[in-house]
Amino acid sequence: MRTGATSAQALVASSLARIASFDQAGPCINAISAVNPAAMDQARLLDEELRTRGPRGALHGIPMVVKDNIDVAGMPTTAGCAALRQAYPRADAACVARLRAAGAIVLAKSNMSELAASNGRFGYSSANGLTLNPYRLSRNASGSSSGTGAAVAASLAAFGLGTDSFGSVRGPACVHGLAGLRPTHGLLDCAGVLPLAPSFDTVGPLARSAADVALVMAVLAPGHGFGAQPQTLAGRRLGIVANFAGGNDEIDAMFDAATAAMQAAGARAIPVHLPTGALTLYTDLLGEITRVESVRGLDQYLAQAAAAAPHSAAELLMRMEASPDAGAGAVNPRTLAALRHALATRDQPPAAGIAAARRWRGVLSQHLIAHGLDALVFPTLACPASPRFDMADASYHCRAEQPLAAMHLASAAGVPEVSVPMGITAAGVPAGVSWLGRAGSDAALVAMASAFEQLTRHRRAPSLTPAL
After folding, report:
1. Do residues 55 and 8 make contact, with C-beta atoms less than 8 angstroms apart?
2. Residue 214, in any domain of the structure
3. DSSP letter, residue 351
4. Would strands 237-241 and 375-379 be described as parallel, antiparallel, or unpaired?
């Protein structure tokens, strides 16, 4: 941009052409829920500003996608729910406002699992249908930030914002060959984000490299060291977590190779065995807390909604129940049942409270401190991306009872975790390796993950969405 070789307008035009070619045509990955009609006008203004005053920073004129549960002024926040198509926010979410102030352009809102709860249908919403994985259309795009993951993987935008309660940034990063960060809980302002479980919800970026994640986080969390940490594995002490092995032979072999690569780069690998409860955190703790918090959070958010939108969780449920029972636009029955149950039991306290979940921060800290570890490392998912809910895929194999269990550690503890690529399976879908650390160690984790990424260079663009 500074040399005139490209411009914000050229980047937006290229992104719009890719959306037309691959999102609604060709493989029809369906990652985009709505294009921002003002994107080109914003690009034109930023190009003029660059010419007359210079760039605001590294994100000046860079197009991004925003998950559809994050408020963008002038566009509805549907959270993938057809009943929220008239939910126009009064202002940008805090995270969007920061990025726009830094010069980033909201290109589009991205599709997602309805109300940020996949419930067996990763990437499916009654508002926009099913997002497909651009690496293999018969496999899921994970969730609930499915559209953000697929859009960034397919280069529909340079980066994207997702949200993560129980893996919704890390899962899509894993199955799309991306870098995705779940920050320390509370590091980023969640004002203007439709909630799932506020005790666990956080905004998180997805990008095609950990270095790009650091650029975005430097804007979202200035002063926290993003981009200032040494990108090296030499001398790092890494806890290699054994609890999540055995689900899939390919994933286990990739993780062994990843561990060997870390050691070859000068890191010391120390075996770590976590308590068996690490495998059942959602069933034991997180699901119950979500049941209680979801209705309260929705009530608070929807109370500020536009006049034509529902203004409470109960009103939202009524509108969802009035939608078609089957076919296009149908609500996931498990999502509907979960909201009904949460409303019916809203006055019943959870079987286990947030304090029980946060005790896992102490458990993880004990392992980190006892062994002098810089991070715990493990496969992001114990198995490759599973078949989409409406299609079988005989090439999929998984022995793990809870293939998502590893992601629940950081959620329960409120600590940071970043996932980066660790290879591509024989079926053509990417796999990821995660780096988890102490609260506040976000920048150091991203730097270590970036060093691994640069060393191994596992990421490959999806063949279904080539250069135009």
Report:
1. no
2. yes
3. S
4. parallel
Select from 224, 142, 160, 156 the least CA-distant residue to 188.
224
Please compute the mean of the pLDDT values over residues 124-137 and round it to a whole number.
97
Q: How many domains does the chain have?
A: 1
Helix axes 39-53, 8-18, angle to 10 degrees: 160
Q: Is residue 297 assigned to a domain?
A: no
pLDDT at position 327 is 63
- Coil, helix or strand for 442? helix
Which residues, including other chains, have CB under 8 Å from residue 299's CB and lie 6 or more apart?
312, 313
What's 468's DSSP letter? -
CATH number of residue 52's parent domain: 3.90.1300.10
CA distance 265 to 280: 34
Confidence at residue 323, expressed as pLDDT on a 0 to 100 scale: 76
357 within domain boundaries: yes
Q: Is residue 335 part of a domain?
A: no
Quick one: pLDDT band at residue 351, thresholds 50, 70, 90?
confident
Enzyme catalytic residues = 67, 144, 168
| Pairing label, strands 63-67, 159-164 | parallel
**CB within 8 A of 182, min separation 6: which ones?**
164, 167, 169, 170, 202, 204, 410, 411, 416, 417, 418
Q: Indicate if the alpha-carbon torsion angle 331, 337, 339, 343 is positive or negative.
A: positive
* pLDDT tens track for 60-118: 999 999 999 999 999 999 999 999 999 999 999 999 999 999 999 999 999 999 999 99
Location of structure tokens 């053509």: 428
Going by their DSSP bridges, the two strands 268-272 and 237-241 should be labelled as parallel
| Separation of alpha carbons 28 and 465, rounded Å | 10
Sheet holding 202-207, edge to edge: 32-35, 105-110, 63-67, 159-164, 202-207, 179-182, 417-424, 430-436, 375-379, 237-241, 268-272
Q: Is the peptide bond before 138 cis (omega within 30 degrees of 0)?
A: no
CA torsion sign, 34 to 431 to 220 to 289? positive
* Domain around 409: 1-278+353-468
CA–CA separation, 196 vs 296, rounded Å?
9
Q: In the structure, what pLDDT confidence band is assigned to residue 328 with cuts at 50, 70 and 90?
A: low
C-alpha pair distances (Å), 299 with each of 302, 304, 390: 5, 9, 32
Contact 317, 246 (CB under 8 A): no
Is the pLDDT confidence value at 233 over 80? yes
In the three-class reduction of DSSP (H, G, I as helix; E, B as strand; rest coil), residue 175 is classed as helix
